[in-house]
Structure formats: structure tokens, C-alpha cells
Amino acid sequence: MSAPPAAALCQPVMLQGRHARLETLHAAHHDDLCDAVRDGELWALWYTFIPPPEGMRAEIERRLALQAAGSMLAFAVIDASSGRAVGMTTYMNIDTPNRRVEIGSTWYRKSAQRTGINTECKWLLLRHAFEQLGCIAVEFRTHFVNQQSRAGIERLGAKLDGVLRSHQICTHPDAPGSLRDTCVYSIIESEWPSVKAHLQHQLQRDRD
Known about the structure:
This protein has 208 residues and is α+β, with helices and mostly antiparallel strands.
């Protein structure tokens, strides 16, 4: 498949699942997201960046600016049972010529973590990337010490490509100046059929 136009990778889209749907991020999601981030005080996690309630509007604007620039497509994660936003996720670092994207900048309120919502959102994003956008690889990146995130990525079937040592300087007030080692994972196009079957099995098990 030839590379899709740049606009296709940033084209707003809604992805619907049983547990959740992904809506293109909008300022109207602000209040729900502020409530969501308070569940577990997620901004206190030093090894990742999750905005506090007072920084949510700026974070939404930042993501939308990157979307306008063609390097991100930002989503609000909507809980299908409540109709409220419970987190955020993105296609980011969009590389149109090489048909690659990263799924990242993802977080969920504490009560939505370790539920079918995360698995389904990853399935929706991966299916859209490989089957609609023609991607040849999808990346995931996380802090070396973020064991919960790493375990979740590995459960998807992604493989560790390597670790970027001293990749970034941490700016969190609880660990200012510390260096982040970034784990880089990927799923490539030839692996998608088996990963898809695995995720569908997990989702069916959640229904049973």
C-alpha cells in the first residue's frame, strides 16, 4: 500500500468499541478530564507526564496544536457506560513517508485502569492504523521504570526494539533533572494478524 496523504493520518475520526469510544479531543472534554485526573491524583506520578486539573486546558491546547501541525491526532477516551471522558490517548510522532506512528501520551483515571477499556482502545487504534491508514509499524514508548506500562505494552504483543539510555531529562518536581531511559516497543505490519487475534480473544474473554 502506498503512503497515505499526511492529512489522512491527522484526519479526525471516531473509533467505536463496546467498552469505550475514541473521540477526537475537544475543549468540551475539559471538565470530564479534570475529574478523571483527580481519581488517583495521577499528576503525582514522577515517571510520566499527566497534567493536574489546573493544567488540563493547556494540555488540551498543546495536543490540538500538534494536531494542527500534522504530528499528532489526539483522542479523548469515552467510557461507553457513562458517556464521560476517562482519559486521553494519541497517535503521535506521525511519520507519513515511512508510514509509522506512535501510540502514546495515554492515561486513564484510576478506576478505569486494568479494565477492558485499555485493551479495547489499543485494539481500535491498532486496527485503524494498520487496516485504514496503511501503517507498516506502530510504536510504543515508556519510561524504563514504569513497570505497569511496560507490562501492558508487552501484553499487546509488542516487541522491545531497545532502550534509549539517558533519553530525556525529567522535569517533574519530585525528580527534577533525573534522566529517563526510554523503552521502545513496536508491532510491525506482518505481526498484526496474530496480535489482532490475541486482542480479540482478550476482548471476548472480557465479555464472557
